[in-house]
Amino acid sequence: MTDYGRDVAFGVFPTPSADPDGLRTLWAVVAAAEHGGLEFAGIQDHPYQRAHLDTWTLMAAVLARTERLRVFPDVANLPLRPPAIIATSAASLDVLSGGRFELGLGAGAFWDAVAAMGGRARAPREAADALLEAVEVIRLMWSDARSVRFEGEHYRLSGARPGPAPVHGIGIWLGVLGPRLLRALGRTADGWLPSSGYARPDQLADMHARIDAGAAEAGRDPASIRRAYNVWGTITDGSSGGFLEGPVDQWVDELTELVLEYGMDTFVFGPSADPVAQVSRFAAEVAPAVREAVRAERG
Q: What is the pTM (predicted TM-score) of this model?
């Protein structure tokens, strides 16, 4: 496979718990990521999950409590959030944080729950079409045009006035898996954001190839596209229990291989248990060792 040569980055996937104990853990995880030198915090967006805080409110609070971390929805729930509003909210958070916001975006899932909250349940192709339209709408709403128009099957703009403008080029990272959307990602998006449970390492080669084909169609350099990976597991002091279930050395070897042999460049860690201690170890022991191993292999 291909090593795209991008700098390696690391982040955390905290659980957005609304209960007091969960919230204390969330803030401790964010602090461990911030003080440990991780780059990102990705926040899941499931508005129908009664135990979770609202993602966009939480992202604003995380940005307000940190100085370094870059924050993104992992991924934004498009069926329940109109893309023009997503664009305005994203740009506002980027302004308020001094350019520390990125945008993860997904086509949608858990359709019964979406419909229960007043959203529209979409068939797979319909959801994919809506996602591609949303990318166009969001970019229009970030433009410097005086007003913008868009006429799609799912979304429309009728002389909408863009603004506020982001203070940096917000990346649009798509959490997609299907062949059509992967190719479209290569043509139009800034990053790919799969999860290891849905895109196993042995499946990545074919998916990268589709992204790269789309990039070639659009005259883009495939290395310009971030390849971020949501990963779950446990750092232990014992023997290996499988992929990303084992001691620090195993984690370093497997993440380094994911960079050099499997094309990924950013790892967003969701601990399986004991999240504060796990994130602290990930930041102190795993991330710097992976950076060094990748640097050494690349020469």
A: 0.97
